[in-house]
Structures are given as C-alpha cells and as structure tokens.
Specification:
Layout: H1 9-12, E1 16-17, H2 19-28, H3 32-38, H4 52-59, E2 71-76, H5 92-98, E3 106-108, E4 114-116, E5 119-124, E6 130-135, H6 149-161, E7 181-185, E8 188-192, H7 200-203, H8 217-223, H9 225-228, E9 238-244, E10 248-253, E11 272-277, H10 281-290, E12 295-296, H11 304-308, E13 313-318, E14 324-328, H12 338-346, H13 350-358, E15 362-364, H14 389-398, E16 405-410, H15 415-427, E17 431-436, H16 439-447, E18 453-457, H17 469-472, H18 489-500, H19 504-521, E19 524-530, E20 532-537, E21 540-541, E22 556-557
Length: 559
C-alpha cells in the first residue's frame, strides 16, 4: 500500500498489518529508509549491513534459557537525562531510554510489520475516520495498577489538555468533548478522526508515538508531574527503580511485563540496565573499550576508528532521519535580518563542517528534509544557502552585520559542532565566542530564547513533518519548538495543508514548497543529516537497530 492508493480499511485492521502493507505505511510516514535497514540491505540513506559483532551473534545464538539474566551496563552520551515523561520529551536521547519503560497501542515487529503492543486487535471504518482497538486484559503498570481503556483516554486527554509538545501528533482527532476518544468498555477504545489518517498506526507505535504512549494517572497524581518526569511509571519491559539526575538511571526488569518471545520465555531477558550519562567523549570510549560499559547509545565520532579497530567492540549504524542547522535567534541582532541569516548560511561550507564535526559521518545538505525519508528527498534543492562566501559577504554587508559579535550557545553534546562553526564564521569576519554551559542550562536557555546562536535540529523524523511542525509553526499557534522566533504565515498554512493531503505526489510538492521557503528565509543555516551510530561490545546480543531507537527488551548477554 502506498499513500496514494485508495484507503483500504481491511489492510489496516488488526491484529497484524503485513510487512508489505506496513512498508507502504512507513514510506507514507517517511520511514521508508527503515525497511532497508531492518532487512540488512543498503538503502538510499546509506544503511550499513550488520556489523561483524552482529553477524557473529547470529552464528551462535544462545538457547532461550541461556539468554536470561545479567545487567547491561550502558552509557548515554549526554551530561544528564532529565525528562522521561513521553509527551514532554524534546531531546532524542531521553526518548531512546523512555521507550524501554513505556508501551504504545501498537509497535513495530522485527520485520517492520505493525503489530499490537497494548492492543490485541483493531478495526478501521470504511471511511478511515474510526479506529477501534481491543486491548490486552493482562497488563499492569509498574506500580501494580491494572491497565484499561480508561488509561488510553487519560493519556491522550492529558497530552492534549496540557498542550504537551507531542500533542501536535493528535491533531487529527475530533475534539475530546465531541467524542475524539470513546471508552467502549474496560478493554475497548475508539479514536474518532476528523479526516482519514492512513499512517495513524505508525504514530501509535511504541517508537515514534510519544503522544499516545500510555502513562499512569495514579502514579502522576501520587508523585506529582515533576517527580514523574524523572521516575515515571509505565507498562513497558523495564521499570525505573532509581534516577540520580546527571549521575545514573537504574532500570530493573518488570517481572509482570506481558510479552514473551517465540519460545514462550518471559521478556525482557535482562535483569536490568544501569545507565551512566557520560558527556566526555574519551571517557565514554575508554569505558566501552575497557568493558566498564557494554553499550553506548551514541559514539563520539572522533573516536570511531578506535572502536572499529577494537576486537571486542563494534559499531551499529543506521541512516539519519534528522536535520541539523545553525539556529539564529531572531529576537537578537543581527539575526532579525533575513539578509544577515542568508549571508551567514552562505558563509558556511557544509561539506567542510561534516568532515570537521562528524568525521564524514553525515550527509551535507542545504535543506531540512533528509535522504532517509526517500520519497520526499530530492537532490536539486534551491541554492539560497549553498556555500558561496563572496555572495555571503555581500549579503552580510548589505544587512550591516559585517564584523558582528555574538556567542554560540553550546553544551558538551554539540561542542565540537560549535567549534567547527565558530572557525568558519571567524574566517568570515565575525567576532564569535563559545558560551558553553551544562546540558540542563543549555535546554533552559534555548527554550527561553536566551542565546544568540546555537547548533541544533531534529533527532528522529519518521515523517518529514515531524522535523517541521513543532519547529516552524507560529510560536503561539503550535510552534512549541520554534526557538528561533520564526514567523511565517505562509509556512504555517502550508504545514496545515500538507497534513491534510493524502495524495503522495500532492503532499510531496507541498513539503518541497515548505522546504523552499525555509531555505530562502533561513531561520536556520542548514548543515547536514547525521548518521545514527551506536557502540556495542561483543558480549551483547539481540539488539535490533531502528534509526533513533534503543530498545532493549530482546537484548541479552552472551556468556
């Protein structure tokens, strides 16, 4: 099934959406690059075949009873993990961990079929505006409370009414007070849409579906939302048993987790996961090579060769479905000037940036839509931001911004990128400093627009709009991550138009029109799409690498 096929309710009904149909949905949702990754073949996004370490575990897979037990020692390449409440997560690394604590209505199987997670089955109305889910009756939250359809309604209502960042994914629902979510019984719930949405099942998965990832009302009311954000209670394979922000997160296997493997063995296999935030690149790599940690969610790219050449470690690579750019705060001069922003963009050599900042492990680009989405990608993007230093200099002079002084806000995670940009902008005649702060301070200041310039972007964009909607809607009308104060009624309206367009070719054209306008307006100086790379020791088996995700419920430790 493709996005421009007639709507077929039978193909979308449960309890399993076939790999072929799911591949069509994933393509329609911008996740087409994942199919090549999971099947082991190269995709146009540059997916690698499995690493040597992954191939070896296939050759000698332990018997089911020998997979269980042990604690995975994992490193997270960040200074701290501060938010684990799904609809409020705006940092990709936080979501990678939270997906091991929570469940969705649906999930992606290893072969990318869409299967039930908390839903056992579902039906779709002929007009595509009603999704009716039958739910599992054997699920409990980590605090022992029983899961029911009321928790689905609460989760969605909370996300929408609290205007959480992930609420935008639920905009196709009818208003809640007009029956957007109907609880039909203890284990049956219906979602009523204003318009058909063939990719809704993708957005309800455990992976990309943060808006409908089921949370515990009882736990939130007992501990309060602030505490829930660091020690949340879900229905997933692991429960948070300890969290010292900036120091460690302790996940223990949830004994009453509902899922088993094909042999009937209780999941997860691991007894638990001990997560250490490690912001310093050399410290992380040394810990991985020494065996102090066995898994790293990301790999410092300057140390990639050390890991690849170490016989006990390997890398796992997936195509990047993201974008990165120089965010310019339009509340501060000279960044209120489009000429100045475009002049800065044309002063930056993206290819040189990728080599300096990512050691070549990214795709240089002048726009926001990534090659990993495949169907929305194009090579011939407008050249308004293409590297042309003399043109950039002229635009900067016309804007009266030549020689301007400003600072690049940075933390440990993007310091190398900040240094690479500082070098190029200094060569362009600017007086540039780096304002390095802690991860916590960084995100607070970024969201409050308390900065001049920073290096930032999206992390995982299953659909192109996920790297656009929250970033470029008007700040007071849905642009919850519009932290550059970009104001364009035209882009705002086109974003709404593309969401309602079901024809693939028509929607692609609208998305290209949006990208064209963003390239011209330059709210960001677009730089690249970064590869998704994790580090794994040879004793770790069972890890399936989906871009942007780090799911551990089937991971085991080899003896």
């Amino acid at each position: 099934m493709t996005a421009d096929d007639d709507f077929d309710s039978e193909k979308l009904s449960g309890p399993r959406v076939s790999r072929r149909t799911a591949a069509g949905l994933l393509a329609a949702a911008g996740m087409g690059g994942l199919a090549g990754c999971a099947s082991g073949g190269d995709s146009s996004g540059g997916t690698d075949t499995p690493t040597d370490g992954e191939s070896e575990q296939t050759e000698s897979t332990p018997t089911p009873e020998n997979k269980t037990g042990g604690r995975l020692q994992a490193a997270w390449f960040t200074g701290s993990i501060e938010e684990l409440d799904p609809p409020y997560i705006s940092v990709g690394q936080y979501f990678q961990l939270a997906s091991n604590v929570f469940s969705g209505l649906t999930t992606l199987d290893d072969d990318l079929s869409i299967v039930g997670d908390l839903a056992t089955d579902w039906t779709v109305s002929d007009d595509g505006t009603q999704y009716t889910f039958q739910l599992r009756d054997d699920v409990t939250f980590h605090n022992g409370a029983e899961f029911s359809a009321a928790d689905v309604e609460y989760t969605i209502r909370r996300t929408i009414e609290e205007e959480a960042p992930a609420a935008s994914k639920l905009s196709s629902l009818q208003p809640l007070d007009e029956g957007g979510v109907e609880v039909l019984g203890d284990y049956e719930v219906r979602l009523n849409l204003t318009d058909p949405n063939a990719v809704l099942l993708v957005y309800l998965t455990r992976g990309p579906g943060r808006a409908a990832t089921i949370v515990s009302q009882e736990a939130i009311e007992e501990m309060g939302s602030d505490q829930y954000s660091v020690t949340p209670v879900g229905t997933g394979p692991f429960q948070v048993s300890g969290h010292e922000v900036g120091s460690s997160v302790t996940l223990d296997a949830y004994d009453d987790y509902f899922e088993t493997d094909d042999d009937g063995v209780q999941l997860p296999y691991l007894d638990g996961i001990d997560v250490q935030p490690i912001a310093e690149p050399a410290s992380l790599v040394n810990a991985l090579r020494a065996g102090d940690v066995q898994f790293s969610n990301l790999v410092p790219l300057q140390n990639l060769n050390q890991i690849e050449q170490d016989g006990s470690t390997s890398i796992s690579r997936a195509p990047g479905i993201n974008w990165l750019g120089v965010a310019m705060n339009q509340n501060r001069e000279p960044f209120g000037s489009k000429k100045a922003r475009r002049g800065i963009a044309k002063s930056i050599d993206s290819e040189r940036f990728v080599e300096t900042a990512f050691f070549g492990n990214a795709l240089p680009d002048v726009g926001v839509i990534s090659k990993g989405t495949r169907w929305a990608w194009r090579e011939d993007k407008p050249q308004d931001q293409a590297y042309a230093p003399e043109e950039g200099k002229q635009l900067i002079e016309e804007a009266g911004a030549d020689g301007a002084s400003f600072a690049i806000l940075a933390n440990s995670g993007n310091l190398r990128q900040a240094k690479a940009i500082r070098q190029q902008l200094t060569e362009a005649g600017f007086d540039v400093e780096i304002d390095q702060v802690t991860s916590s301070t960084y995100w607070d200041r970024y969201a409050d627009l308390d900065y001049d310039v920073t290096i930032s972007g999206s992390v995982v964009d299953p659909d192109p709009e996920q790297g656009l909607w929250n970033f470029y809607r008007l700040p007071d009308e849905g642009g919850v991550w519009n932290w550059v104060n970009y104001q364009s009624e035209e882009v705002h309206e086109m974003l709404a138009e593309q969401r309602q367009t079901t024809d693939r070719e028509e929607r692609t054209q609208v998305l290209h029109d949006i990208e064209d306008q963003l390239i011209e307006d330059a709210p960001h100086a677009y730089l690249s799409h970064e590869d998704d790379i994790a580090g794994i020791r040879s004793e770790v088996g069972g890890f399936t690498h989906t871009p942007g995700l780090r799911n551990f419920h089937r991971v085991f430790l080899k003896e």
